[in-house]
Amino acid sequence: MDEHAMRTAIERKRDGGTLEARTWHEIVAAYSTGAIDDAQMAALAMAVHFRELDIDEIVALTEAMLESGERLLFPRVPFVVDKHSSGGVGDIVSLVAVPIVAACGVPVAKLSGRALGHTGGTIDKLEAIPGFRIALETHEFIAQVERVGCAIAAASDALAPADKRLYRLRDRTGSVPSVGLIVASILSKKLAGGAHGFVFDVKCGSAAFMHDESEALLLARRLVEVAARFDRPAHAIVSAMSEPLGRCIGSGIETIEARDFLRGTREDPRVKALVLAISAKMLALGGLDGGERLAAAALADGRAYERFIAMVEAQGATRAAVESLAIAPRAHEIRAARAGTVARIDAVALGNAARRLTQHALTAGIELAVSIGERVEREQPIARIYGDGVGAHEIQHAVEIVDAPSAAPPLVLATL
């Protein structure tokens, strides 16, 4: 595709038209080789942002970006599942659900990313475990899924490289929030990862990428629909992200929370509810009914924790490294400035504060002692800061306390 043909495509999309599958393949190929420059690709992305893509266009763009790189295969495993979260704060679901599902007999191959903005990244969390290898060669990743039943590793640059280049451009030019582009970006990487089925956790709320529930529901529907076009069964859950999911915020401290949750020394009803819901959907894809019951049993009897340890050991770390992982010293207790009901918890502010803390120590972070809807008294502890670099006023400002009663929002907003 030359400059003139690209301009024609931009104008067509700008005016609300659609582009044929062949055109999308030509655009991705030309952009990957440099035949199309950033200026024209940015113009097309912005036109898409305002005019959106129909489902055939999303499929074509997904396929074109998928074909720009390598694709993993699991020839000796009948069915492999993967899960994807659109990003949240205090979200330890992947660290808990992956070993649960594997312990129930359904293999999981998860390629994950790093933190984006205020949200946490699964890879950053696992790096808090001394010796844990996040970068696996393709043959190592496949062999581990076959042998251990699960692996979580950093996505290789060889998978959907066209998406990586386009995402960087979208991020620089303000065209990230387009449902069609988001779906193509997620699925090109997920399909390249080789899994046979997917569960998508689409976050919705003030700390999520999607603030509007109708937009989040549209994204969830499109992910399931486009996956089906590639013969990949999928489920989606739209979950609330108006406050941190768990109590801990920060890469290493979330890993500690996940460890303790898996071995039964920490309880959190919100985390447990979402973990069991997502695990059940993953198990259903693998052909197992009664998924919540199976997942709860694997969690309760220690099989999930032992599978987590097996994964950790396969990726270069040790049981001792996991079990000796400790929260950073220098805890500062934050107390409520007034009595009332917790009406709002600014997860974006807390996520950003936790990132600053973890720059000094991997297991630094913030641990909340309250959640939305709880009644608190003046001087009651509402959080602890582990590490230095964040002031008490930041946390107090992030936790809004009001006189009137305030109900906690529902956690699961929709299931597809």
UniProtKB/TrEMBL annotation:
The enzyme's E.C. designation: 2.4.2.4
Alphabetized Gene3D superfamilies for the sequence: Nucleoside phosphorylase/phosphoribosyltransferase catalytic domain, Pyrimidine nucleoside phosphorylase-like, C-terminal domain, Transferase, Pyrimidine Nucleoside Phosphorylase, Chain C
InterPro entries for this protein: Glycosyl_Trfase_fam3, Glycosyl_Trfase_fam3_N_dom, Glycosyl_Trfase_fam3_N_dom_sf, Nuc_phospho_transferase, PYNP-like_C_sf, PYNP_C, Pyrmidine_PPase_CS, Thymidine/pyrmidine_PPase
Record key words, sorted: Glycosyltransferase, Transferase
PROSITE patterns found in the cross-reference section: THYMID_PHOSPHORYLASE
Pfam family, one: Glycos_trans_3N
Residues annotated as transmembrane: none
Residues in Pyrimidine nucleoside phosphorylase C-terminal domain copies: 341-408
Enzyme class name: transferase
GO terms under cellular component: cytosol
GO molecular function: 1,4-alpha-oligoglucan phosphorylase activity; thymidine phosphorylase activity
GO annotation terms (biological process): pyrimidine nucleobase metabolic process; pyrimidine nucleoside metabolic process
NCBIfam families the UniProt entry points to: PRK05820.1 (NF004490)
Assembly and oligomerization: Homodimer.
Family affiliation: Belongs to the thymidine/pyrimidine-nucleoside phosphorylase family.
Protein name (Swiss-Prot/TrEMBL): Thymidine phosphorylase (TdRPase)
